[in-house]
Amino acid sequence: MSARLALSRGAFALDVEFTVPAGTVLALLGPNGSGKSTVLGSLAGLLPVRTAEVTVAGRELVGHGVDLPPHERRIGLLSQDSLLFPHLSVVDNVAFAPRSTGKNRVQAREIALEWLSEVGAAEFAKRRPGQLSGGQQQRVAIARALASSPDLLLLDEPFAALDVDSAPAIRGLLRRVLRDGPTTVLVTHDPLDALALADHVAVLSEGRIVERGPTREVLGAPRTAFTARIAGLNLVAGVATADGLRTGSGEVLAGLLTSDAVVGEAAVAVFEPSAVSVYPHDGEHHGSPRNTVSATVAGLEPHGPVIRLRVTGGPPWASGLSADLTPAAVADLALEPGSPVMLSIKAATVAVHPAAG
Ligand SMILES: Nc1ncnc2c1ncn2[C@@H]1O[C@H](COP(=O)(O)OP(=O)(O)OP(=O)(O)O)[C@@H](O)[C@H]1O
Predict the structure, then answer these.
(1) Whose CA is nearest to atom 27 of ligand 1?
(2) Which part of the chain is the ABC transporter domain (predicted)?
(3) How many angstroms is it from 264 CA to the middle of ligand 1?
């Protein structure tokens, strides 16, 4: 899909242009009020726009004199609170989607039951939404969003209303259905959601896209202050193992799997720069011998109250890692670009998350 959108809402102005390759997921990240929900509302045809050109799956939704109403756009929208129809059963809620695209009652019911079983909610088919937990309702809402076979799926903070126990299961479910699913735009404030689900991210600030690119590149090496603040994480890509992550070059980084990570599947090890300890190259270090590597200081930059050090060299996965040190520690270790160092990362601080792709 490709979109160019410009509009004003009071003093707020949105002006964005982006594309999402077919079948992939774009995450929109940005601070409160940056325009994320406005982008989704405009794509869905729910907000008046000044200029818009939106093409999805080769079909023009808006632009050049065309302006399809929301129900003709073939867009599935999933918001934070699922807004199921309270007076309809679960299966009728889901069947509503294919019905509205012209399927007859029998076909619509069949499609609904298939999707309910796909999302693990078949047993609730006859219940009313009020008789389900928040997580169960969100499963049904996902089934409903997908049951219309949308050309474009819009997800607006799909985990925001869920408790910490049900969010990982729903994230895992979305990962599964999005793998072969429709082209998707996901709004989130959580970089870990973007890592788990999105191929690309775009960072919005005050109605404009200030940064975009492949998820791991943008979150691992942010170029804007905002992205650095929300992300700036150390990311190492590989495959989840029982006790951590195997990197592309075969080393194992010890860590803890999150509850939605699956051994043998693509994963990203995530740890904060403050979790990386730095020792002199030939001196003693007291970290776990497992996650210890030698590297070379590439650069030092003030980062709030600490100094953020970036390294190069060492095994491929370690090149580009960041570590936060106090100014006193930098002085004690006499660190400067080119200094050889040892890095140590406690396994307990390394979280292994499932990764898109
Ligand atoms: N109904 C409205 N009328 C006028 N202005 C609005 C309206 N809704 C939102 N805005 C303004 O549009 C801007 C973008 O809001 P939007 O909800 O798109 O941001 P967001 O990035 O989704 O924020 P959040 O993360 O808080 O959901 C904000 O400045 C907001 O005040």
Answers:
(1) 32
(2) 3-231
(3) 41
Residues with C-beta less than 6 Å from any ligand 1 atom: 9-10, 12, 30, 32-38, 189
Tell me how far CA of residue 92 lies from CA of 84, 117, 137, in angstroms.
Answer: 10, 14, 13
- Give the full edge-to-edge strand order of the sheet including 292-303: 276-280, 340-345, 292-303, 306-312, 322-325
Q: Rounded distance, CA 354 to CA 3, Å?
A: 29
Dihedral angle over CA of 237, 240, 241, 243, nearest 10: 80
Tokens encoding 225 = 């202050």
Nearest CA to ligand 1 atom 31: 33
* Cα of 53 from ligand 1 centre, angstroms: 21
Tokens of 17: 């242009």
Best mutation site among 14, 32, 156, 193 for ligand 1 pocket (most ligand atoms within 8 Å of CB): 32
Please state, in angstroms and rounded to a whole number, the distance separating the CA atoms of residues 200 and 117.
29
Interval between CA 337 and ligand 1 midpoint (Å): 44
Å from CA of 46 to ligand 1 middle: 14
Structure tokens belonging to residue 226: 């905002």
Ligand 1: which of 14, 32, 38, 39 to mutate, most ligand atoms within 8 Å of CB?
Answer: 38
Rounded to the nearest angstrom, the distance between the alpha carbon of 208 and the centre of ligand 1 is: 13
Token readout for 147 is 């049951």
CB neighbourhood size of 32 (10 A): 6
Which residue type sits at 344?
S
pLDDT of the chain, 357 residues: tens digit per residue: 999 999 999 999 999 999 999 999 999 998 888 999 999 999 999 998 889 999 999 999 999 989 999 989 999 998 877 689 999 999 999 999 899 888 999 999 999 999 999 888 999 999 999 999 888 998 899 999 999 899 999 999 988 877 777 788 888 888 888 988 899 999 988 887 888 899 999 999 999 999 899 988 888 776 676 776 677 788 888 999 999 999 988 999 999 998 888 999 988 898 989 999 999 887 666 655 789 999 999 999 888 788 999 999 888 889 889 999 999 999 999 999 999 999 999 999 999 988 875
